[in-house]
Design goal:
Structural class: alpha+beta
Distance between the termini: 107 Å
Number of strands: 12
């Protein structure tokens, strides 16, 4: 019997005859080093998953906060002359950084069926820029307002001193009117629509060769004296739906 120990030495051939198979893994890397790489990959995965969860929670919190702010800001805007609460959308992401700065550069508002003087502005769409808050959501200034309002032909007809049955577009500043005289006779006329200050002038320029005065068709004006939020009338054009008015405003204060 041999005097040498019979136990397996540190480097014994593996199943395929490789003397280093036990020390090196299946891919030729030391087994200890493979375990370290595995732990590193697992830590990276955990970090990425945690980061994704935190980002998701931040986005959810940001969107919840902006919906609350939309409602609060709509309430304040309504107090500036709107007959009902408009729809408000504060643009930009993230929202919470804007709250921290108390400044918003892009806010969209939409309002419907606003009574202005003798007419109804059927829809108002405007963009408010450079809004700076001074006290929570209750006060601040709006640097600029730019938007449009649509006065449909139906609303325009109701504001006319004569009975207008139908209005259609002729050009960007002219419209064709169908007027009923004495409740019996209908005739057509073409009127020019222009802006003069904060009013819309409708001037009859032709009535089938008959003087407009003889037919009882006089020129008339539609004042728009009290637009919400201090907006002013900049221009007016005739569209297929009605009169499209351009509105603007600058450095408008709101709240107390």
């Amino acid at each position: 019997m041999s005097d040498y120990p019979t136990q397996r030495l540190p480097f014994q051939p593996g199943p395929d005859g490789d003397p280093y198979a036990d020390y090196y893994g299946d891919h030729g890397a030391p087994r200890g080093r493979g375990r370290r790489r595995s732990r590193g990959r697992r830590a990276l995965i955990i970090f990425l998953v945690t980061l994704a969860v935190l980002v998701g929670l931040f986005v959810i919190a940001d969107r919840v906060a902006v919906r609350f702010a939309d409602n609060e800001f709509a309430t304040q805007i309504q107090k500036q002359g709107f007959s009902s609460k408009p729809q408000v959308s504060i643009e930009g992401f993230p929202f919470l950084t804007q709250v921290a700065a108390k400044q918003f550069n892009d806010v969209k508002i939409t309002a419907n069926n606003e009574r202005v003087g003798p007419v109804t502005v059927d829809s108002i769409n405007a963009t408010l820029g450079n809004i700076k808050l001074t006290s929570g959501w209750t006060s601040g200034t709006v640097g600029s307002i730019n938007g449009t309002g649509l006065i449909t032909f139906g609303s325009l007809s109701k504001a006319s001193p004569v009975s207008i049955g139908n209005i259609t577009k002729v050009s960007n500043n002219e419209a064709k009117l169908t007027v009923t005289l004495g409740g019996l006779v209908s005739t057509s006329a073409v009127a020019k629509v222009t802006r003069v200050g904060d009013r819309i002038d409708v001037n009859v320029i032709s009535a089938g060769g008959i003087p407009a005065s003889q037919l009882g068709l006089g020129n008339f004006s539609i004042p728009l004296p009290n637009l919400p939020m201090g907006m002013t009338l900049q221009s007016v054009s005739v569209t297929d739906q009605g009169l499209l008015v351009t509105i603007t405003g600058h450095n408008v204060a709101f709240g107390g």
